[in-house]
Amino acid sequence: MDKRNLTCIGCPMGCQLTVTLEDGKVMEVTGNTCKRGETYAIDEVTNPTRIVTSTVKVSGGNEAMVSVKTGSVIPKNKIFECASALKGVEVKAPVKIGDVIVPNVCDTGVDIIATKNVIAIG
Amino acid sequence: MKEYELVIIGGGPAGLAAAVAAFDAGIKDILILERDHSLGGILNQCIHNGFGLHTFKEELTGPEYAARFTDQVLERGIEYKLNTMVMDISPEKMVCAMNSEDGMFMIPAKAVILAMGCRERSRGALNIPGYRPAGIFSAGTAQRLVNMEGQMPGKRVVILGSGDIGLIMARRMTLEGAKVLVVAELMPYSGGLKRNIVQCLDDFDIPLKLSHTVTDIEGRERVEAVTIAKVGADRRPIPGTEIRYECDTLLLSCGLIPENELSQNIGVELSPVTSGPIVNDGLETNIPGVFACGNVLHVHDLVDYVSEEAAAAGRNAASFIQNGESTESDKIELCPEGGVRYTVPVYLRPGKMNDTVTVRFRVGEVFKNSSIVTYFDDDEVMRRKKQIMAPGEMEQVILKKSDILAKPGMKKITIRVEEG
Predict the structure, then answer these.
(1) pLDDT tens digits in sequence order for chain B, 420 residues long
(2) Closest Cα partner for B78 from B113, B117, B120, B116?
(3) Do residues A72 and A98 share a domain?
(4) Which chain A residues contact residue B393 at CB under 8 A?
(5) Does residue A119 belong to any structural domain of this protein?
(6) Tally of structural domains, chain B
(7) What residues in A contact B176, CB-CB < 8 Å?
(8) Residue A9 touches chain B, beta carbons under 8 Å
(9) Residues B83, B5: one domain?
(10) Do B147 and A51 lie within an 8 Å CB cutoff?
(11) CB-CB: which of A33, A62, A67 is closest to B47?
(12) Which of B254, B274, B294 is the C-terminal boundary of a domain?
């Protein structure tokens, strides 16, 4: 039996979770105060994922950079690969929240989308 | 210049939510004054996600959260001026501002909402010894440089302070290719949210050294090394525990201070604990018709609470404009005790207060398996168990007007942390 302690990040409560594993299978989650805590704990020990946020350059707009995020979660071990895929990416204004900036980033099936409106100027 | 019924100082999350709520309460004649080139305030540089869980039931990034409120302001046609600095506000609510288009101008207002936010504690305020080379930034300045200007402040980074912005910047700079060597925290606990410690430090194996502080900065032109040392219970460095890190950058994330120079000019009384205005249940300061909300009032942990508080300030300002000054003379004082550092508001007007009033506060240390207990004079009226409370997270108690009116002649309400 293997026990892992986690801090739940589902909400600002930050519940201290204990996951009991046997042969890589989750046997029990304790310490959570809601269902999301249990789901988080199981995901975190079997398939950890993250939303990645970053910025890319934008030309011809009222801002120098436009903020972006992965449209949904990607595997935790792809964070760095995803960040480097955004290096050198440049888009043209106007940009609207939700615009796809990089489709299917690092073959995750997840798009990088804009999180800021940038108005074209000049 | 034209008179406005309501002038809002600051177009960040607090100012925007206050404007929308005041408009919806019937005040159409509103002007927002913002010193930056766009609305949204600091949210514009907070590109990480995690905003809006309470307000929108989904996780948004800072710019997305700001856009939701900016859109509401634009839909209502609420007026605003960008790149505009407010210089002074008189007790008669004459607002003096300037920008490069209008020059200096005066705006008479019936009510004013203070929503200027806060600023970061600087190196000067921290008394860090050593040279004064380039490469020392507040975490928020570094955040603006990276996320809005596209500039990297350095390559090898030490961070002092484990406030949320410092933690977020540890991850951000790591993703942009910098090496973050360590985060040193003076206190024996982190001031940041749990999720940020997990997702910004643990995910990237960045060590967090609690009870540590910076004792030396080397380098004449540029930072060359930073030395940290363990501190004792007296928070003074313990000789012999020094660790030296070769680095080119030191980020400071050592707390936020409400920015109240303008408030002081009006004659607004400030709390020595929060550095923010002392307000009543309507979030009104000691100057009638001058309200405060958001981080200028007290530093918040979540922007959702800023929006909620600011909306209340907006509604109350609208009611002041529509109904005139409160004539209520009865006051009930809120007394923070036993681990509760302060409360906002500081006093209640039993006759004037809304049906419910949210009292927000922070605790002074980490409490486990404790309760938040509320007393009306000496009678215990509420007890809520909390598994954990930490200074980094705000707590709240909701008071009902009906409960308070049921106890006429009450002098004080005490909120304290008790064991068990």
Answers:
(1) 789 999 999 999 999 999 999 999 999 999 999 999 999 999 999 999 989 988 999 999 999 999 999 999 999 999 999 999 999 999 999 999 999 999 999 999 999 999 999 999 988 888 888 888 999 999 999 999 999 999 999 999 999 999 899 999 999 999 999 999 999 999 998 878 888 889 999 999 999 999 999 999 999 999 999 999 999 999 999 999 999 999 999 999 999 999 999 999 999 999 999 999 999 999 999 999 999 999 999 999 899 999 999 999 999 999 999 998 766 678 999 999 989 999 999 999 998 899 999 999 999 988 888 999 999 999 999 999 987 888 888 999 999 999 999 998 899 999 999 998
(2) B113
(3) yes
(4) 12
(5) no
(6) 3
(7) 83
(8) yes
(9) yes
(10) no
(11) A67
(12) B254
B195–A7 CB contact, under 8 Å: yes
* Residue B87, domain extent: 1-119+256-326
Count how many Cα atoms sit within 13 Å of the Cα of residue B87 in the half-sphere of its side chain: 9
Residue of A nearest to B70 (CA): A117
Q: Is A21 on the interface with B (CB under 8 A)?
A: no
Express the helix, strand and coil content of chain B in percent, nearest 5 each. 25, 35, 40
- From the CA of A69, how many Å to the nearest CA of chain B? 8
Residues A37 and A69 in one domain: no
Asked if residue B184 and residue B242 are part of one domain, the reply reads yes
Supply the pTM of this predicted model. Answer: 0.93
Contacts of B380 (CB under 8 A, 6+ apart): B373, B374
Q: Reduce the DSSP state of residue B358 to 3 states and report it.
A: strand
CB pairs under 8 A between A and B: 80
The rounded distance, in Å, linking the Cα atoms of B317 and B162 is 36
Count of CA atoms in the C-beta half-sphere (13 A) of B165: 26
